[in-house]
């Protein structure tokens, strides 16, 4: 899998949005539509739910809107600051250690990295998640027991969006979609997610082989 596909995988599996060249725009960008009072009233409950997720481990299925890319793997989250994505097919993985996000291409044995603060990884990994300020909720949709919450970077809304998909009863995060600046969509569906699990912190450090960091 190429580094380009790895980064697209990161966008989906980690619900991130890496900085990209701005798409051409015509005229001044339009402000997002305002949420209704009822939708605004739901945001604190969604925030509280997200803040309660201190750790998460799940298998996932990743797909693209054109059907050309499909992948499976394991997603792990340990807030604040830590995340790991392991792909089943090829040994590629992504890890966030609290400061940087690293992308490892096992085929060519190369890594790339970016500061967490330069990506929307910061939104998911920060100690206090807020659906306001540097992110803006542009849409809330509810249908057949499913709630969708779409958000963008407040200062750069044209760079793409992230849609979190929740089951209503019981309320829980089940999938997400990333729409990038080129209008490409990637979706990740969680399979049997486990919340509040104990995770080994040693695995949230970059190692070229993918092995856990050796203890001192």
From TrEMBL:
InterPro entries: LolA/LolB/LppX, OM_lipoprot_carrier_LolA-like. Keywords: Lipoprotein. Coiled coil: none annotated. Pfam families: LolA. The keyword Lipoprotein applies. It comes from the Bacteria. The keyword Lipoprotein applies. This is Outer membrane lipoprotein carrier protein LolA. It comes from Niveispirillum cyanobacteriorum. The lineage of its organism: Bacteria, Pseudomonadati, Pseudomonadota, Alphaproteobacteria, Rhodospirillales.
């Amino acid at each position: 899998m190429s580094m380009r596909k790895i980064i697209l995988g990161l966008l989906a599996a980690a619900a991130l949005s890496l900085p990209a060249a701005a798409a051409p725009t015509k005229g001044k960008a339009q402000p997002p539509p305002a949420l209704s009072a009822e939708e605004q009233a739901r945001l604190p409950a969604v925030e509280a739910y997200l803040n309660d997720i201190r750790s998460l481990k799940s298998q996932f299925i990743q797909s693209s809107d054109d059907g050309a890319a499909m992948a499976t793997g394991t997603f792990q989250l340990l807030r604040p600051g830590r995340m790991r994505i392991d792909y089943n097919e090829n040994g590629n993985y992504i890890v966030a250690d609290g400061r940087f996000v690293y992308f490892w291409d096992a085929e060519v044995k190369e890594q790339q990295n970016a500061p967490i603060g330069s990506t929307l990884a910061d939104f998911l990994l920060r100690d206090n998640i807020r659906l306001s300020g540097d992110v803006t909720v542009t849409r809330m949709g509810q249908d057949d027991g499913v709630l969708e919450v779409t958000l963008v970077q407040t200062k750069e809304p044209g760079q793409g969006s992230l849609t979190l998909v929740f089951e209503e009863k019981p309320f829980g995060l089940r999938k997400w979609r990333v729409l990038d600046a080129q209008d490409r969509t990637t979706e990740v569906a969680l399979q049997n997610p486990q919340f509040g699990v104990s995770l080994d912190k040693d695995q949230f450090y970059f190692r070229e082989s993918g092995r856990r960091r050796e203890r001192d």
